[in-house]
Amino acid sequence: MAKIKRERKEKKIPPEQPALFYFLRRLERAEDQYLTRSFAESLKTQHDVPFELVELFVRRVRQQNIFVRVLGPSGKKESLLLNKVIFSMNKVVRIYCSFSLRDEENSYLRMYPNRRKGVITVERLAGAWDAPQVVFEHHDQCHAIRFITNWVVARLDWQKTKLHNLDIYKLFVQTRQQQLAQQLKSLNGEVQMFRYGQQPR
What's the burial of 54, exposed, middle or buried (CB within 10 Å: 0-12/13-18/19+)? Predict the structure, then answer.
């Protein structure tokens, strides 16, 4: 009786089990190969999109006393400092076009490096649940900076923004004067060389 009970407790190996195990081992290898190919293909589609210059530009401009007019909660245009309208964090630039009493209803532009497409993308969102609408795409950072510049210039409040008071404008004027002085010096040198019959280098 004890022997019969032991035989009942022993599990018999189904005859199809070796075939199933072979099948599953093949599936494992096939899955590994598929995952390897998928990873390699995803790397090919991930493009390195430079965005550092855009971030530096935004951070520097935000430090200036520049005022822009955007729609406020009342539905009327309000004059706000640029650092209240444009934000840059973790390779994403947000430009708010209008503000609402509820944050989730704010309208803004979102700029970020789109690695899948290999371009810098700008999307318009009118609220947290709104589907993003692409309004600009370009691979060059300079064109992205031009987009931001055009947006700011179109909304500048010239009554509050004084160009000659901006630190970056003072630096711009100083640099331009130095460049002009260098050009004049170089030009005078060429004139002197011609006067004495020498050819400029």
Answer: buried
pLDDT per residue over 99-122, tens digit each?
A: 887 777 789 999 999 988 899 999
Cα-based distances in Å from 198 to 32, 78, 89, 187, 190: 75, 63, 57, 14, 9
Q: CA 71: distance to chain centroid?
A: 24
Contact assessment for residue 120 and residue 147, using Cβ atoms and an 8 Å cutoff: no
Q: Which residue has the tokens 């649940």?
A: 129
C-alpha to C-alpha distance for 198 and 181, rounded to whole angstroms: 23
Q: Phi first, then psi: what are they for 196, rounded to 5°?
A: -100, 15
Residue 143 has pLDDT above 60, yes or no: yes
Give the model confidence (pLDDT) of 146-190 as tens digits.
999 999 999 999 999 999 999 999 999 999 999 998 888 887 766
Distance of CA 16 to the CA centre of its chain: 56
Per-residue confidence (pLDDT) for residue 194, from 0 to 100: 64
Check if the beta carbon of residue 53 is closer than 8 Å to that of residue 141: yes
